[in-house]
C-alpha cells in the first residue's frame, strides 16, 4: 500500500521544487514568476526509502467565481480532499504573509491532517520566518530547503506516522533488508514476458486552445485538467495513470505548441521544452486539430516532429460537431496528409468532439491499433522472400558503366518504430528514391500504415550465405 501527500501553499513558495526533489527528477516547471503551476501534477516519490504518491498543486489563491485563479483553487481543494496528509509550504525568508495566515485558517478546518513546512531555510535568512510560523497554529514547522536538499530527514520523521496509519510502512519494513531477488536489475536483462504489461505512454499534443485538456478530462471522466476559453492554460506536461477497457495508460496532457518565433515568455519556453520531452518519451502521440484549421502549418510542424522522433501518431479532429461540410473537410484532410506527410502514409484520423464525447471510443481504438503496428515485427524469412520479389520486379537503377547494385539480404533490427537494414554491394550509391520505393512496399505488403519506417542500407554479405 501507499499513501498520498499534497503540497500546497501560496504562489512561489517552492512547491514545484520540493515536488521535483521528492520524485527525483525535474518534471515540474520551476520559475521565479509566481503562478507557474496551474494543473495539479502527480508523481511517485521516494524519501529515504519511504515510497508515496505526491501531488504538486497550483498556488493557493483567495479567489472565487470562474476566473483562472478560482479554477486553479478548486483543483487544489480537490487534491487536499484526496490526500492522506498535506504539506503546507511557506517561504521562511519572506516570513508569514496574510495569505499564509488565511490558508492556514482554511487548512486547520479541513479533515486532512497538515504538516507545516518552512521552505528556503538554508543559511540564517529563514530563521525569523521559521519562528514566526509557529503562530499559524499548525504545529511545529519542519525547516528545509528543497532547492539545496536540506531537512529531508526531518520531513521523513514528520511523514512517518501518516505512512504507518495508511499501512504504507511498519516497523518491519523499516528494519528489513531487501532479499537478493527483490533488488532491481537492469531493464535490458528483463524480457517483456518477465514483467507485467507496462502502461502505454499516450501523449496529447497540439496548438494552444484546440481542446487538449478537454479531451483528457473526457477520457478520464473528471475535471482533472484546468480548461477554459483562455489559450495557454496548460503549462506543465501533466501525467495521469488511467485504465481503458482493461489496458493501462500513462496519459500526458501538454502545453500548446506555437511557432517558435512567437515565443518570448520564459515560462512558455520551459513549457515547450516539457512538451518536446514528453513527445520523445511517448509511444503514441495524439495530435489534436481544430476543425476550423485542419493541419495548418504549425500542425504539420508538430506532426513531422513526432514522426522524426519515431513515435506513432494519431490525428484527432476536434469540434467536429461544428463542421458545416464534413465531406469536404475530410477530403481536404486526406489530400493534406498525402502531400505533406508522405513519410507516415495511412495515418489514422478520427473526428471527435471532446466536449460531448462523440468519437472518443473510435479514437481509443485507433490509438491501440496504431500502437500494435508500431510494435510489429516481421520474420526475416518473410522479409527476404518479399525483397527477392520486389527487386526482381523493379531492380535498383544501373550505375555508370552498366553495373548494378546487388541487394543481398534484409532484416528487421527493431520495432518501435519498425526499423530495417538492407545489405547491399554499394550502399552509398543506392538512390533515395529507391529506398522510398522499398519503404512504400514494406508499408503496403506488411500492413504498416501510419507509422514511421526506418530503413538503413549497409555494406556486407548475407550473414547466412555458405552456412548450412
TrEMBL record:
One GO BP on record is: ribosome biogenesis
| Stated role | GTPase that plays an essential role in the late steps of ribosome biogenesis.
Q: Where does GTP 2 bind?
A: 206-213, 253-257, 318-321
Q: Which GO terms describe its molecular function?
A: GTP binding
**Residue ranges of the EngA-type G domain?**
3-167, 200-375
Q: Where does GTP 1 bind?
A: 9-16, 56-60, 119-122
**What is the name of this protein?**
GTPase Der
Which species is this UniProt entry from?
A: Magnetospirillum moscoviense
